[in-house]
Amino acid sequence: MAKIVNAKNEVLPFTSRIVHVIQKGMFLNATTNLMMSFASKEFKERIHIHDGKNFEKLRNMVGYGNLPAEYGGPKENELDVNILYEHLLRHSSYLSQLQSYRKKFVS
């Protein structure tokens, strides 16, 4: 299990800085706790877990203007899935090309 959690460094095409996990529901809470028990110390320091009810801590860390409307941000930050879908379709060949890259290890 620890290999799976820490293998994200080999899979993601970018270096993760900070990740915010918003937990909604008992299943996600249990899953997150299980995964975090196997994560490296460095990974745990970059993860911030929020309960999904009180967004004050998230707002303070990320900023009100950066939050989506459904997580307590301004109304104009409402996510329009159609815009996202159209963007992905327009750039599908580029995204496919990114999938073909392999991370190179330096010995």
Automatic annotation (TrEMBL):
<dbReference type="InterPro" id="IPR001251">
    <property type="entry name" value="CRAL-TRIO_dom"/>
</dbReference>
<protein>
    <submittedName>
        <fullName>(Mediterranean fruit fly) hypothetical protein</fullName>
    </submittedName>
</protein>
<dbReference type="Pfam" id="PF00650">
    <property type="entry name" value="CRAL_TRIO"/>
</dbReference>
<feature type="domain" description="CRAL-TRIO">
    <location>
        <begin position="1"/>
        <end position="79"/>
    </location>
</feature>
<dbReference type="InterPro" id="IPR036865">
    <property type="entry name" value="CRAL-TRIO_dom_sf"/>
</dbReference>
